[in-house]
Every structure is written in structure tokens, then in C-alpha cells.
Design a protein that fits this description.
alpha/beta, 5-stranded mixed sheet, 3-stranded mixed sheet, 9 helices
Length: 281
């Protein structure tokens, strides 16, 4: 029996945030997108550290210099993929280059200091699997790709995700790692012994481990199938929230537009004075 739906963690998260956003992005495949520059640092530094392992930069005479030498190639790769012309914003490119030359060497020190080089170290591991839930009578294809796997043997793997945001804890989501842990368990029949985030921009405190157990894995998997059933039933009611401000589809969603318009009016009202006194914008 083939799978009935493909679902990635980002797809599940999108549906949780707003079913209508999921419909636009994953059903209609609307390509509307925001400014991609906010993701460049993470994409480029992620590629550099991927090559640190796959190209065995760690085995060279100077791993830091070797890794730094990857920056320009990784930058060009990401720019081409995103169809970004660096001549359009040279100031941004200067800042980006400065950050990369700062955080790549510090990232190598993080790898050294936290023993993130092991016989089982792997990057960009495809964990995509098919899984059937007898409870929900559904087979799903569950997608995911882990940033890093480490461990001394196949039985003591720890799974890690790299983050390059300059807001250390703002965008982390333990459920993302539990999703990967489920996929790893389904694929290899053993659960990672540890889950963690690596913060490349915070070398003074770069690792955050996430505690989890079998019950967390079961709850996450069950929640995934519940969402998949709602998707199959075409339940795509918009759920306006503060997330509408950063939604790529805010100009295409009447409910979201009304929510933003109402919120804009409310935030301009001075609660200290009359409800009808509008503050200057």
C-alpha cells in the first residue's frame, strides 16, 4: 500500500500555525515568498560545516583556514540557488561576509571543545520514511534531513540541528528534533541517545540539549497523523494571529488582512487616554 500524503516537519508546523497558509504553500504550491536574505547566514554557514565533515577539513593541517576557504564557494552556491544578485545590496554582503569570517572559526572551536567529531559523524542525513498508523488507518511519507549525527557507535547516536540566528533561543523548537528522532527510530530501529541544537553565533554557550522520552515520540507521531487526517479532509480554515505579520501570503488572505488591519488600529489607540484618541504613527 502506497503512502497517502507526504508531510515534512515544516509542513506540519505550517498547518499548526495556519491551515490556510498550508493550503497555499503545499496544496496550491504558491511560490510567493518574502525576503530570503534573513536565511543566508544559516544556509551558508550550514554548508561550510557540512563540507567540514564531508571534505574532511578536520584532517587538514589547519582546519580553520580550510573551512574559511569554503566560505566564498558556499556563498555563491546559496546566492545562485536563491537567485540573489549581490550587486543589488553590497552593504548587506559586506556584513554577511564579516559574520561568516567571525563565526566559522568560532564554530570550529565549538566542534573541538564539545567533541563534535566522532566515528559516526554524518551530515545532511536523509531520514525520509514511510510509516503506517493502525490507529489512524493511514500511511504517510514523513520527510526530514538531520543536520548532524554523531556518536562512537551506531547504538549511541546523538542528533543535532545547527542554528545561525542571532537570537539564541527565539526560533528553537524541541518538537523539530523529536520529529527527527521519530524518523531515525523508524528507519534504523534505535532512538538517538541525545538531541541538541548548535548555536553557531553563540560560541560562549553553543549547545542546548533537549530532553525527551518514548512518550514524547509517541505523542509527536500521533499528532502528525491527526494533522494529516485534517489535511486529507481539506480542513483549511485560516487562523489569524501575530504570525500574519510575517506571512508571505498576507496579501492573498482576506482573513489575515482583516486581522492585521484591526490589530494596526488597536495598537494605535492610547490605552492611557480616551479609547478614541489615536496616537501619532
Amino acid at each position: 500500500m502506497g503512502y497517502e500524503l507526504y508531510l515534512s516537519y515544516s509542513g506540519r508546523k505550517t498547518y499548526e500555525t495556519c491551515p490556510e497558509k498550508y493550503r497555499l504553500a503545499y496544496i496550491l504550491k504558491d511560490k510567493t515568498r518574502g525576503d530570503p536574505r534573513g536565511s543566508f547566514l544559516g544556509s551558508i554557514i550550514g554548508k561550510v560545516f557540512e563540507w567540514f565533515y564531508t571534505r574532511k577539513a578536520w584532517a587538514t593541517t589547519d582546519p580553520v583556514a580550510t573551512s574559511v576557504s569554503y566560505i566564498d564557494e558556499a556563498t555563491q552556491l546559496v546566492f545562485r540557488h536563491e537567485k540573489f544578485n549581490p550587486d543589488q545590496d553590497p552593504a548587506f554582503c559586506t556584513i554577511l561576509r564579516h559574520d561568516l569570517h567571525k563565526y566559522v572559526p568560532e564554530g570550529i572551536e565549538t566542534i573541538r571543545n564539545h567533541n563534535l567529531l566522532s566515528p559516526q559523524s554524518r551530515t545532511e542525513t536523509d531520514l525520509t520514511v514511510e510509516y503506517t498508523s493502525s490507529k489512524h488507518n493511514t500511511t504517510l511519507k514523513l520527510g526530514g534531513r538531520s543536520d548532524f549525527l554523531h556518536g562512537n557507535t551506531e547504538n549511541d547516536i546523538y542528533l543535532m540541528d545547527g542554528k545561525a540566528s542571532k537570537h539564541r533561543d527565539k526560533y528553537i523548537d524541541a518538537e523539530q528534533l523529536i520529529w527527527y528522532a521519530n524518523l531515525y527510530f523508524i528507519k534504523y530501529h534505535i532512538a538517538p541517545i541525545k538531541l541538541g541544537f548548535i548555536f553557531w553565533c553563540f560560541p560562549e554557550d553553543p549547545i542546548k540539549w533537549i530532553s525527551y522520552n518514548n512518550n514524547d515520540m509517541r505523542k509527536s507521531l500521533d499528532h502528525t497523523f491527526e494533522i494529516a487526517n485534517k489535511i486529507k479532509l481539506a480542513q483549511f480554515e485560516p487562523t489569524p494571529s501575530a504570525e500574519c505579520h510575517i506571512c508571505n501570503f498576507k496579501d492573498k488572505c482576506d482573513v489575515g488582512s482583516k486581522h492585521l488591519a484591526k490589530h494596526k488600529i488597536e495598537t494605535r489607540i492610547n490605552p492611557v487616554h480616551s479609547l478614541f484618541e489615536i496616537e501619532n504613527v
